[in-house]
Design a protein that fits this description.
The chain is of the alpha+beta class. It has five helices and four strands; from the N terminus they run αβαβαβαβα. Strands 1-4-2-3 form a four-stranded mixed β-sheet, with helices on both faces.
Length: 106
Amino acid sequence: MNKLYGMLGLAKKAGKISTGAFICSKMIKSQRARLVIIARDASDGTKKSIGDSCRYYKIKLIEVGDMSELGRMTGGGDRAVVSVNDNNFAKAISDIYSMCCETEKG
């Protein structure tokens, strides 16, 4: 997971992410979000709302860490939702996530 958080930090420095459920929801609906990351401890309402939007707009959604970890990696307080708004960063983070999940399952 450290690689994933490192890449998320780079995306933040490059100005390619948005944080917070409201802003991320706007990014999803405007189809600027390329990948959405939601914290495992986000509220059920947030998970449903963001999940439904991602499914409707066909944007990949991954669930990792908790709100404090996402907040730490994105330079703020607790964050339930982060959208990655760049194709290259989204692909890199998605690839790292896939490798982490395969390693944990194997």
